[in-house]
Amino acid sequence: MNGKFMVIDPSKDFAKLKGLSSPTRLDILRLLHENGPTNINVIAERLTLPQSSVSSNVRILEEAGLIETETRKGRKGNQKLCRAVYDEFVIIFNKGTESQGNDAIEVSMPLGLYSNCEVTGPCGICSTEGIIGLLDVPATFLDPERMKASLLWFTSGFVEYQFPNNTRITQSPVDAIEFVMELSSEVPGTNANWPSDITVSVNGRELGVWTSPGDFGDKRGTLTPGWWKLKGSQYGMLKSWTVNHSGTYVDGVRISDVTLNEIGLSDHHSIRLRIEVKPDARHPGGVNIFGRGFGNYDQDIVMRIRPRH
Fold it and tell me: What is the CATH number of the domain that holds 269?
């Protein structure tokens, strides 16, 4: 590890707080920090815990983005290696957070209201009521019924959304711009160990890559409708991409040097957000994007522009 730290906002990072709220999970994190990548059997042996208990706590840590796992072949079959992602956690209670939040310009973009797309199959779109168009047919992404979408998925390619650039109206300096969305990898069926490199760009400028650890189907998503089969993707991870004057961050962790000045907010009448899986990515594991009525979070893609105070 390279001294990575995570900033936790207790007003919204509930999954991360849950991950840190158990002495057992803290012991697992401490062991991984000291020993490096370790398989579940060794963790159970070192901590004198049942393997089932370690497995369930590892799953919670993985869902919170606090550890990463990888399945490798061992002498006696496959083994699941666990690795700590961060060295430090910083919990920040921002003074005046509530008033600053009220000043933010927020736009919620319906999942199906993308302005441009180019995808490869397997792919598909569905609403809370059923499948839209034909599965695994990229042309379906142009179906007008896509406006009802609550879940979409594709193997490679992109969808692009055009947000109104309200900064040109307010003429006020901007401190940060944030995009929040629920994402996972995409594999036929589900697989929690299926990494995918998801690239996010704004106004044609790549902000950086976030690697989704997998496609989650161990339990039904909180909002996922009953007609959707359990063997399909159930939920994702709520990820926050923030660009400010010092760089770009995912959930408070710096991922690139791209700053507000480089995405040219004042130069464009709209703000174009592209979510992409490149065919030549190191982990081209597809993407699921969850909207209202699917997954664990009742929201579409949210953009927040935070003015400078």
Answer: 2.60.120.260
